Amino acid sequence: MNLTPKQLRILNRIRETRLTRGYSPTMQELADELGVSKVTVFEHVEALIKKGALKRQANKARSLEVSPDLDLPDEKANTKLPLLGSIAAGSPIEAVETREHLDLAELFAPSKGTVGGNTFVLKVRGDSMIDEQICDGDFVVCEKRNAARNGQTVVALLDTGEATLKKMYKERDGRIRLQPANDKYEPRYCRPDELQIQGVCIGVVRTY
């Protein structure tokens, strides 16, 4: 499929927003992202729908969705890195080179039985999870889910529109406790209808 760079950016933005928020961006949000007018975005979207790259439900807001049959270029990127062996973080050990690879896509693959099998990445801002070794600037790899078990670190979308990364616990009184991993912060309590679980953290990536 012949796609322009701006059309690829639109598709990627729609896909990422649906993964992280559960719904599509508006035409204005797409226009702001590309630095163009809303009319230009509308023309690109209509062209993408005609090409079969995008789907849209009639008379429904935020319903744009990337066609499941479309493989975007970044999805074909090489996710394998050479695994050269082990290194000691305690007593010294003999360094032995191996001929293996660490496949990041396989390492962070969704758990068995998960519907859709979607993973996404978010950049962490703040220090509320430092006791879980999740620091400001880290990237958390998340598996898209709408439910979680007690003690799991989740991406929670509150009814205020705020998204937060916290450990989730179900209290006996029916409330949900979103627990930070930093004594400087207090836990937040919500009713089940006051938040949506968007995903569960399955890994952390840190660059230096």
CATH architecture title of the largest domain = Ribbon
Please give the CATH class of the largest domain: Mainly Beta
Major β-sheet strand ordering: 5-6-11-7-8-9-10
Binned, the helix content reads 10-25%
Percent strand:
25-35%
Stretches where pLDDT falls below 50 for ≥5 residues?
Answer: 86-97, 113-117
- Using the alpha-carbon principal axes, give the shape: globular
Distance between the termini: 37 Å
Description:
This protein is α+β, with helices and mostly antiparallel strands and 208 residues long. It has 4 helices and 11 strands; from the N terminus they run αααββββαβββββββ. It has a 7-stranded antiparallel β-sheet with strand order 5-6-11-7-8-9-10, with helices on one face. A two-stranded antiparallel ribbon has the order 1-2. α2 packs across α3. The relative contact order is 0.13.
Brief description of this entry?
This protein has three domains: 5-70, Winged helix-like DNA-binding domain superfamily/Winged helix DNA-binding domain (Arc Repressor Mutant, subunit A), CATH 1.10.10.10; 74-106, no CATH class; 115-205, Umud Fragment, subunit A (Ribbon), CATH 2.10.109. It is 21% helix and 26% strand. The protein is built from four helices and eleven strands, in the order αααββββαβββββββ.
Which terms summarize this structure?
alpha+beta, Arc Repressor Mutant, subunit A, 3 domains, seven-stranded antiparallel beta sheet, globular
